[in-house]
Every structure is written in structure tokens, then in C-alpha cells.
């Protein structure tokens, strides 16, 4: 994935995750059609620059608060970041979040600039079959991912449709 110097973003509007001298966050580039490109920010403390990488995901402006980056692995040479993205749908009330995806990115810390590799995504739904009635009308809100002691990840999110908390365990 292409990594370049990030110019023109406001650091005050970015929630950063910082560990071992490297900060990671998300920024948004408005597309002009009601959605924004989501960019992964990488800011090593040993350099005076912040870098960005396009995640290749566009998000409607009303769902920006649904994005949740999580540091899954960190070392001097390599970091892994997981980002929860919503899967949008229209229902009777308007746009809603029907499902989620957990996308993983590997960041290698190199001398000149970091390199980023997309490792893949996991769909998070109540039923793996997208057409299942269990997935109808779901409306998730503000998902959070947490790395647990053994390195695995738990994703937790309220389902507004059923007024319950839903979670997934990712190895």
C-alpha cells in the first residue's frame, strides 16, 4: 500500500493510539459525495513527519464515530493495527450499521518511511450468512476492540435493535 507524508490534517481532531514511540490514528478526506476516504496515520517519534496510507475504505460522514482503531501488536520493528469499519444499509429509519468488518494492517518501521501491508478482514455479523434473518434490522453503535493478554482481540458493540451487547472473539 502506498505511504506518503500526511499534509493538511488537524492533529487536534485525531484520536491517537501511542505505544513504543509510534502514534497511530485515522484521518478523513472528504470525497464531495457525503462520504470520506479513511486514512491510517503513522507518526514515529524518531521522525518529525506524520505519514498516511489510504485504507481503501470510504465511510459516510454520519458513521465516522463508528470507526475504532486498535493496536493489536507492537514492537520496535512492526505494529499491527485493527480497524473496525461499519457495513452500511438503508432500513425504514434511514441509514444504519448492519454489520462490521475488522480490517488488519501491518506497519513495518523502516528508516526512511514506514511501509503498510493490508492483511485482510473479518466480517462481524450475528450470522455468517449475510441473508440470514438474524442480521435483519441490526443497528450497531460505537464498536470497540480490545486486545487481551494472550494477544487475541475481543470486539464489543451495542446492538440498538435488540438493546443487547454483542461481542466477537478474534484469534
Question: Can you walk through the features of this model?
Answer:
This protein is an all-beta fold and 171 residues long. It has one domain (3-128). The chain has strands at residues 3-5, 17-19, 22-30, 35-44, 51-60, 68-74, 78-91, 94-108, 115-124, 144-147, 153-159, 164-170. It has a 5-stranded antiparallel β-sheet with strand order 1-5-4-3-2, with no helix packed on it. The protein has a 4-stranded antiparallel β-sheet with strand order 6-7-8-9, with no helix packed on it. The protein is globular, with a radius of gyration of 17 Å. The chain starts with a strand and ends with a strand. The model has no long low-confidence stretch (mean pLDDT 81).
What's a quick, concise take on this entry?
The chain is an all-beta fold. It has strands spanning 3-5, 17-19, 22-30, 35-44, 51-60, 68-74, 78-91, 94-108, 115-124, 144-147, 153-159, 164-170.
What labels describe this entry?
171 residues; mainly beta; five-stranded antiparallel β-sheet; 58% strand
Tell me the layout of helices and strands.
Layout: E1 3-5, E2 17-19, E3 22-30, E4 35-44, E5 51-60, E6 68-74, E7 78-91, E8 94-108, E9 115-124, E10 144-147, E11 153-159, E12 164-170
Antiparallel strand pairs: 1-5, 2-3, 3-4, 4-5, 6-7, 7-8, 8-9, 10-11, 11-12
Amino acid at each position: 500500500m502506498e505511504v506518503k507524508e500526511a499534509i493538511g490534517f488537524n492533529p487536534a481532531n485525531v484520536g491517537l493510539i501511542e505505544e513504543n514511540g509510534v502514534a497511530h490514528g485515522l484521518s478523513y478526506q472528504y470525497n464531495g459525495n457525503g462520504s470520506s476516504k479513511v486514512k491510517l496515520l503513522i507518526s514515529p517519534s524518531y521522525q518529525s513527519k506524520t505519514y498516511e496510507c489510504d485504507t481503501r475504505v470510504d465511510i459516510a460522514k454520519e458513521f465516522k464515530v463508528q470507526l475504532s482503531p486498535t493496536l493489536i501488536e507492537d514492537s520496535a520493528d512492526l505494529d499491527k493495527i485493527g480497524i473496525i469499519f461499519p457495513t452500511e444499509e438503508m432500513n425504514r429509519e434511514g441509514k444504519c450499521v448492519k454489520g462490521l468488518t475488522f480490517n488488519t494492517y501491518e506497519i513495518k518501521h523502516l528508516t526512511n518511511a514506514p511501509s503498510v501491508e493490508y492483511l485482510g478482514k473479518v466480517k462481524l455479523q450475528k450470522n455468517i450468512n449475510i441473508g440470514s434473518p438474524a442480521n435483519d434490522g441490526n443497528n450497531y453503535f460505537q464498536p470497540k476492540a480490545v486486545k487481551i493478554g494472550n494477544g487475541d482481540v475481543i470486539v464489543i458493540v451495542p446492538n440498538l435493535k435488540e438493546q443487547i451487547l454483542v461481542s466477537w472473539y478474534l484469534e
